[in-house]
Specification:
single chain; Rossmann fold; 7-stranded mixed β-sheet; 16 helices; about 35% helix; globular
């Protein structure tokens, strides 16, 4: 692990202020194979650059340690599938993509997005550093995939071997780059002169307003705003030309980036003006975030300990990275959970990092019918509640921890 040298990841300013200290945390997607809770931990510190408005963590875990063997599969979310299917259809129409076009995706995961292009006859290339996940994309969806990290040096290799892209997708990976301007410089190398990069990332405004501190973990080096991305794109020789908010992952933005000389539309200007108007990139805006997080966690901790004193069985739903941050920040109260359920077979049979709670198949929710389940994947609340209606019909309830503590019952669902 490296601690930042006191300078911003984007602009290299030394005007960094700590917003939230989440203490020592394990790697959120490590998911050990046994209940040993003594795995390696690292400090996790959330900070703001006063010069370019980039929110960021101060620590840098080498990407090879984070992503070379990965256990997250995008395909297991119905909401994600609907989201990317609609996006692909729209881009094919707007960009007039066909058999002579070429689409790349960085961090292509299990082929969840690119398979929709293949179905429409558009050639694709996936770039995925996790060999186990890339293998799924190749075998299950026929997605041509290079097992590699995407950076300036590898971008030249991809360009030389496959040519330039009409569209480059980068969903929930831009924030994973310890050098965001370098990442965009690599994007510039593989884009056709009239090509576009479609970059999706969680919106830091939603993170702060929703008190969604659980989306802070070591894989996410940067927490993005339109002001910050506009600045980065310019430094990399690109232009931010469009932005669009989307509810996926609890609040994200689709950034459309092109070569310089392409004009930005009115939405970009409106977002820039709005973020500056509310002071999103100022310390004054962010200063009460830490207190709100601590208040929320104290309330959840008290709630779980009260249920434990009543000998109620409480579990959690979703072995997500955000769940790891939340549970490890809670500490002893989180260890009162009996187990965590998750739809992904890659996670089942493993343990939540740091707290040693086992991960079981979703079917365990009905087999054991616990009194309550903490909804760690709260950003998919509606989807999960619909899928688990029988659990609610039997008297179960979901505890939603973010943005405020509340319970979902059958009555509230209807």
């Amino acid at each position: 692990m490296k601690i930042l040298d006191g300078k911003c990841r984007s602009c290299r300013s030394d005007d960094l202020s700590v917003i939230l200290d989440l203490g020592q945390q394990p790697l959120a997607n490590s998911l050990p194979e046994n209940a040993d809770t003594n795995e390696k931990t690292y400090p996790l510190t959330f900070a703001l650059c006063g010069n370019c408005s980039l929110y960021q963590i101060l620590e840098s875990i080498p990407p090879e340690e984070l992503f070379s063997n990965y256990l997250y599969r995008s395909a297991f979310s119905d909401a994600m599938q609907a989201h990317v299917s609609g996006l692909v259809s729209r881009l094919i129409g707007e960009r007039r993509l066909g058999a002579d076009s070429f689409v790349m995706e960085v961090a292509s995961n299990d082929g969840y997005l690119l398979k929709h292009y293949i179905a429409r006859g558009v050639p694709v290339l996936g770039i995925e550093p996790a060999e186990n996940i890339a293998d799924i994309a190749i075998k299950e969806h026929g997605v041509k995939t290079e097992v590699e990290f995407f950076e300036v040096t590898t971008a030249k290799y991809f360009y030389d071997k496959y040519g330039a892209a009409d569209v480059l997708h980068a969903h929930n990976v831009f924030a994973h780059s310890p050098d965001p301007v370098g990442f965009l410089s690599a994007v510039r190398k593989v884009l056709k002169p009239d090509g576009v990069a479609v970059i999706e990332a969680p919106y830091v405004l939603d993170l702060i307003e929703l008190c969604a501190f659980d989306t802070i973990y070591h894989e996410h080096y940067s927490y993005l705003s339109v002001v910050a991305v506009h600045y980065m794109a310019d430094r990399a020789g690109l232009a931010l030309i469009d932005v669009e908010r989307t509810p996926i992952h609890g609040g994200s933005i689709l950034y459309t980036i092109a070569h310089q000389g392409t004009a930005a539309n009115g939405r970009v200007i409106d977002f820039l003006d709005y973020e500056r108007e509310i002071g999103l990139g100022t310390l004054a805006y962010a200063q009460n975030f830490s207190q709100r997080v601590q208040n929320l966690c104290r309330e959840l901790e008290k709630h779980l300990l009260n249920r434990a004193r009543k000998n109620e069985v409480v579990v959690a739903y979703g072995a997500s990275a955000k769940g790891s941050t939340l549970l490890n920040y809670l500490g002893d109260a989180a260890r009162k959970l009996s187990f965590v359920v998750d739809r992904s077979p890659l996670k089942q049979g493993r343990y939540m990092p740091g707290i040693g709670v086992p991960i079981k198949p979703v079917e365990s929710l009905l087999e054991e019918q616990p009194e309550a389940a903490v909804l760690l994947s709260w950003n998919f609340e509606r989807e999960i509640a619909r899928q688990q209606r029988v659990y609610l019909e039997r008297g179960g309830r979901f505890i939603v921890p973010v943005p405020k503590l509340r319970e979902v019952t059958l009555a509230s669902l209807d």
